[in-house]
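re: that chain from earlier
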Amino acid sequence: MSKRVLITGGGSGIGKAMAQAFAVDGARIFVTDMDEAALAQCPNSWLKMTGDASDPEHMRAVFACISDEWDGIDVVCANAGIAGPTALVEDVEPEDFRRCVAVNLEGAFLAAKYAAPMMKAQKSGVILITSSNAGINGFPNRSPYSSAKWAVIGLMKTLAMELGPYGIRANAIAPGCVEGPRIDGVIAREAKAKGTTPEAIRAGYEAGVSMRSFVSAQDIANMAVFLASDGARLVSGQVIAVDGHTENPDPKV
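^ sequence. v structure.
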């Protein structure tokens, strides 16, 4: 029977790559995103819902639809997230900090909260949370983002403990720098803050990675499909970095 897979933040980037990879694997797909135009570009065969992953009412509606359409859920990819501000901690506005944490952390919490009863009832399921190597190493000038990505690892490990007795696994994927518009924006903002060029910042990031390379959204999607498979049936409570091995999380530029 084909897997029933929900991906939050699935309209573009890593989330869409995950959805496409699971679809190729034969899964039924449900994607949510705040970007209605991005969702409109997704295949019509996918279930879709526009909304904010950190909004409890939206997430309640998502899982009500899942219950009606599928009567259960096999895989939840809590992927929705935002980059947050790029600034020294003393220059970060409290509301910007809260918003970044809300989307990245509370969005994952809500996905797990509403998935857990369904998965417990069927005594199976996989919850995958998108963290970051910023959630392993820290990230200067990105305190809201790094804080949230550290926090989702604590959430994931607790889910693995609470839900493991019901046959449910939880893991986190920690991407490195993923090629695409989001990291381009981060690099541009950091270059401005440091008074240098985006090219210099990019070179510094690459120099801090053993494999001297950024990763692709497909690399992350491939890991998600594996972690949701029977090949990873006893992998739970783990943080899996897909980053080419970060040696230095704060390369000096």
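The mean pLDDT is 92.
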